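Morning F.,

Quick status update on the modeling queue. The single chain you submitted on Monday has been processed. Sequence for confirmation:
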Amino acid sequence: MALQESGEMYLETILILSGQKDSVHAVDISEYMGYSKPSVSRAVGLLVNGAYITVEQDGSILLTPSGRQVAETIYERHRLLTLYLTGIGVPADIAADDACKIEHVISAESFEALKRHIEYMQEHGLLS
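Structure tokens below.
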């Protein structure tokens, strides 16, 4: 199953929340994303069917290896794109919003080139 942008956003959210909490539940996702519980429930069902997450008996949501891989890729893109945009003078809130949009459409090749450029800039004190 090919993931749409919304699926990637859910996986990224689960990854972020799992770093903040002992266990992640649908209500946590709903609160974090500002989505209704029925919307989150539907998305959780789709992600379970796609084998991106599992739901334990206590309702806790866990990323599968493939779900974690997608989530980490999206989250890395978000962090680096935000860093780059703020580094070139974009206000933080706008940079985060724009990074959220770009992270889902940028090709792997373009992102890797941008990542190398960001690393170069950091090594030379041009970006902090």
